[in-house]
Amino acid sequence: MDWTTPDGSYFSLREVHEWTEDYSKQSFLYTSVSAYVQGSPYTARLPEHADEIDEGDVLAALSPVPSACIHPKFSDTVKVAPKVNSAIHYLKAPSFQYDDCQPGETFVADCVLNEVTVLELLSKDPHPNIVSYLGCVEEAGRISHICLKRYDGNLPDYAANGLSADQKKRVIHGVAAAIEHLYSLGLAHNDINPHNICIDSNEEPILIDFDGCLPLGEKLMKGTASVIAICRETGRQISHQQNDLDGLEEIRGFLRCVKET
């Protein structure tokens, strides 16, 4: 459940569940609130299910997020973003839940730093089907946002009114090419799905969201939805090209369900 207020503040409610060790069952724990109010991050933990919570409950429960939990330190090796133009640039802010924002927790900051490290590498060996990285925004010595090229929308948006057979083939070929490029660099994305594919002005598919991208063979970062899905479905707990090939198959399945025009 997400909403934006007239002043630009953003609120997101996500129910948190506990999985059994074999990922076969889950039980409700609480609802996590993530918010950006006037650009600053806040969080809250509420015992009710998301559909039982109103805006007043959320506002009363909010507390500020410690910067170190979600923003890694900026370093000289990180490219500085250009002056931001919202028409052509997209600023990616950290995504977090309540448990990520407790003192001493750095899981989100580690994910952000991992994504920046991967994007810095990819920017030195770019590919037309991989997101264009422009640098990072620095605030108080930390990375506040990742600056990326802005695209028109994601694959579900693009496919909403149907696609031709040629358009579908173009998506598959582009995503497959991005996977091969990552593999040539010893990387796997590990979270390929329709929402992580954008479409550019030339109708080319663009692979985005590299916070789970890791060198082949490295242990997946615990706690992300993609890791849970991979462990449930395959038992794999490492970065592997098969994770991406499975994601490509998910894209194929999605496109099979899209009306052909």
Domains counted in the coordinates: how many?
A: 3
Measured on Cα atoms, how large is the radius of gyration?
19 Å
Strand order of the largest sheet: 1-2-3-4-5
Biggest sheet statistics? 5 strands, antiparallel
What is the CATH topology assignment of the largest domain?
Transferase(Phosphotransferase), domain 1
* Mean pLDDT level: 92
In terms of DSSP E residues, the strand content is: 15-25%
- Measured as a percent range, the helix fraction is 25-40%
Shape: globular
**SSE pattern:** EEEEHEHEHEEEHHEEEEHH
Q: Can you tell me the CATH superfamily of the largest domain?
A: Transferase(Phosphotransferase) domain 1
Number of strands: 13
GO cellular component, one term: autophagosome
Domain Protein kinase: 30-261
GO biological process, one term: regulation of autophagy
Pfam families: Pkinase (PF00069)
Give an account of the 3D structure.
It is a single chain. The chain is α+β, with helices and mostly antiparallel strands. It has three domains: 8-64, no CATH class; 66-150, no CATH class; 153-261, Transferase(Phosphotransferase) domain 1 (Transferase(Phosphotransferase), domain 1), CATH 1.10.510.10. Helices cover 30% and strands 25% of the residues. It contains seven helices and 13 strands. The strands form four sheets. The protein has a five-stranded antiparallel beta sheet, covered by helices on one side. The chain has a three-stranded antiparallel beta sheet with strand order 6-8-7, covered by helices on one side. It has a three-stranded antiparallel beta sheet with strand order 9-11-12. A hairpin with a 2-residue loop joins strand 3 (26-37) and strand 4 (40-46). Helix 5 (165-184) packs antiparallel against helix 7 (241-256). The two termini are 32 Å apart. The model has no long low-confidence stretch (mean pLDDT 92).
